[in-house]
Amino acid sequence: MWLLLVTTLVFYYWTWSQSRFVRLINAIPGPKSLPLLGNLLDLDVYNDNFLKMTTIDWVQKYGPMYRVWLCTRPFIALSSPELVQKILASNKLITKSPDYSNFSSWLGNCMFTSTGVHWKNRRRLVAPGFHFQNHTSFIDIFNEKSAECAREFERTIDTHGDVEIDVNPFMAKCALNIICETAMGQQTRIEVEKAIYVNNVHRICQIFVERVSRPWLSIDWIYKLSSLGRESQKCISSLHAFTNKVTRDRREMLKEEEQNRGNVQNKVMDVEKESKRRFAFVDGLIKASNEGADLNDNGIREEIDLITFAGYDTTSAAMVWFLYLMAKHPEHQKLILDELDVVFSGDVERPCTTQDIAELKYLECCIKEAMRIYPSIPFVMRNLTEDVEIDGHTLPAGVTVAMVFYAIHHNPLIYPDPEVFRPERFFPENSVGRHPYAFIPFSAGPRNCIGQKYAMLELKVVFANLLRKVKFSVPDPTKPLSDAPDLGFVLKPKHEVRLNLSKRLNKLG
């Protein structure tokens, strides 16, 4: 019986290995794979060289398109602007990799995890929230929360003197305060709740990568029984409780405002309240739901969870990387200060305006260069729903394709000396002729990041307010960051980013 079973398995494996699907995959260059295991032994996400191996070394060895096998499941990695454009620019190839369904227990069927008509409807409902008419409301929040962050840095300096600290928790708190208010209209949440939320989001992203790298955990019942699956469920329950509470509170508040609107005595008060109340994404979704859109409370929670996650985790990572690069390159920090001095006339207290933001050209170049070196989203994955011809190869329907932004951003043919911080790469005259898909920190095409303008506004306001008050430096600019980036769903430092803080003297000195 055992002999028969083994013989049958060997026959099926041999038949599968000779199939058109496998032959097309193996026609693409890539590291040598083992029977059944594929490249599983190479793809150790805990290896400090994992990021360099998959985004630099293998690209140099096998070219801008290579394949890897996770047991019997293939992945195709694309790492040139021309190749990723074939997928990202398509209006047909919009289906996310099934790996993203690992987020479904948390984010449900939101516009990030869904496809087809459902995705289009959800994106249409969320898009008005990012309209430029809401930018003034956003900028006010960005100013307030970044000013609070600057004061926290200043209080730390007052208490400890010029001090070396980990900037991660400061920027995580700033980013979370901003997104909580813009997404949920929540001006106050107790610190314990915020800390729990931050920890849970961070852990969920780690679990996502760990599950992808362990093929046996793709089977749901095995995953649910595993310690990783049980930990994931605890995190998700806590995250849902956080969002459900603020959504219920906001719905009640809007309902109360609507009921009071007809009261003559409250009319003046209502007008005053509405003029002061800022836009929140949840308000727009609740309004759409009340007006008959296909969006119930679970749907609202799904989209708010997505907006909160994307607006917190990716942005806080971008903030930390930017401050690290500013500390490491004081000459560029000084050039930003010169620009801030001109735009704000030496006033360190005045909030940013829309006009100010448009004039901060060098700051924007520095932000883009930081996002080139450390893109918050290092890769995205799509599941091909039809055969695609790319670079002389047929990528068969059903295969997962990874567009590796990190590799594109570090391609020396596009960006000479790619590890060097050079904001002038993004001067208009130096960007002429560059492929439009050579810099895609927010992805591109029909499924690009819906909040990219919001994110750039936020980063410019936050840094303009922080850098006018606090100087960031490192003890030894030649010393690299103690830990390489952690290649997860969001690209973060593995541990602390310790920078020296000191107050600025005499205006912007």
Could you please describe the fold and organization of this structure?
It is a single chain. 54% of the residues lie in helices and 9% in strands. With 509 residues, it is an alpha+beta fold. It has a domain at 1-92 and 379-437: Uridine Diphospho-n-acetylenolpyruvylglucosamine Reductase, domain 2 (2-Layer Sandwich). The strands form four sheets. A four-stranded mixed sheet has the order 1-2-7-4. The chain has a three-stranded antiparallel sheet with strand order 3-11-8. A two-stranded antiparallel sheet has the order 5-6. Strand 9 (485-486) and strand 10 (492-493) form a beta hairpin. Helix 7 packs parallel to helix 20, helix 8 (168-184) runs antiparallel to helix 14 and helix 9 packs across helix 11. It is globular, with a radius of gyration of 24 Å.
Proportion of strand residues: 5-15%
What is the terminal separation in angstroms? 82 Å
Shape: globular
Which CATH class of the domain at 1-92 and 379-437 applies here? Answer: Alpha Beta
Q: What is the overall number of helices? A: 20
| CATH architecture assignment of the domain at 1-92 and 379-437 | 2-Layer Sandwich
The residue-averaged pLDDT reads 88
Portion of residues within helices: 40-55%
Q: Count the beta strands.
A: 11
The description of the largest β-sheet is: 4 strands, mixed
Enumerate the spans where pLDDT stays under 50 for 5 or more consecutive residues. Answer: none
Backbone CA Rg:
24 Å
Largest beta sheet: what is the strand line-up? 1-2-7-4
Structural class: alpha+beta
As for the CATH topology of the domain at 1-92 and 379-437, it is Uridine Diphospho-n-acetylenolpyruvylglucosamine Reductase, domain 2
